[in-house]
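Sample 3 of the quickstart, ligand 2-OXO-4-methylpentanoic acid:
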Amino acid sequence: MTSLLDLHPTPTPIASAERDARLQSLGFGQLFTEHMVVIPYEEEFGWGRGALQPYAPLSLDPATSVLHYGQAIFEGFKAYRQPDGGIKTFRAERNAERFRASARRLAMAELPTDLFMASADALIRQDRAWVPSKPGESLYLRPFMIGTDAQLGVRPSKKYLYVLIASPSGNYFPSGVKPVTVWISEEYVRAAPGGTGAAKFAGNYAASHLAQANARAEGCDQVVWIDAVHRKYIEEMGGMNIMFAYQEGGRTVLVTPELTGTLLPGVTRESLLQLGRDFGWDTIERKITVDEWEADVRAGRMTEAFACGTAAVITPIGRVKSRHGEFAVNNGETGPVATKLRKALLDLQHGHAPDPHGWMHAVVDGHTAL
Ligand code: COI
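Result:
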């Protein structure tokens, strides 16, 4: 696989004592490893030869199209240290597929899955000493692609640059897995039918900051998005999917908003639904309104709500606020469904539990010297 890329590692690697010091207290996305992968594309020639090279700033012509018209997509997935010292990634090929779907939506070039996987394997192998090993820590991989034509006509770029960087990471939210308070955004929407909501498109995130600032001003941690048309169906929380746990006649039912085209099809979302089915729970993908959320909590049918995504895994929702009032979910505490799912997923990813669905991909075996 690595033969798809030229390898140009840094001639001046960081001393291991300095690296270990930097790995001591990890936040999210603050620290980066020593290398990156870049692969250029040109409409005329297709994907060019990629390279693994030292992590460094990109140099762009001021007329580069992404700076003006915003063709930028990204992905996020993780590599986990295993009990034997090896390293595995979790469902990276699903991210490769979604990256291609995002590219199609933004009229960008599609990166073949084998190149996506080869880029990750090469970077992880090269920077394997940067994969942390404490519980809950991982190497967060951030592939992204930008339009790089240097011209100002409004049309899809004819040149693209795919880049992969890696960040040793701990908890996404500084407070760890404490339940968050959410603000239902009625003023702003994240995505509309026919828009870019199902793509991991940089502009979706840029457009979310103002609503997130509003949520903060209302004393909340995160914004919850509702649909653009009916203004009542729950879509996502911040940049994460959302799930609800019901207890019905002694059975656990996991409910999550269906993928209508305006939601991001999350890999963690898909994986938790599978784990729920593995536990013998019912899983339902359907539309759910804010009013139902409140009524079902007050009636005691809905016992938990939580958000899920690659970066933060599972984030319980403890309180829900809007212009119309507020209510607590599970007395503002983390519940057993979120706890069980989070543990099951992390155990599988860290190699402490079997992998019945073949989700883990071995990148570095346990006997490879650092
Ligand atoms: C995730 O939940 O992994 C996300 O996509 C959030 C990310 C933009 C940090």
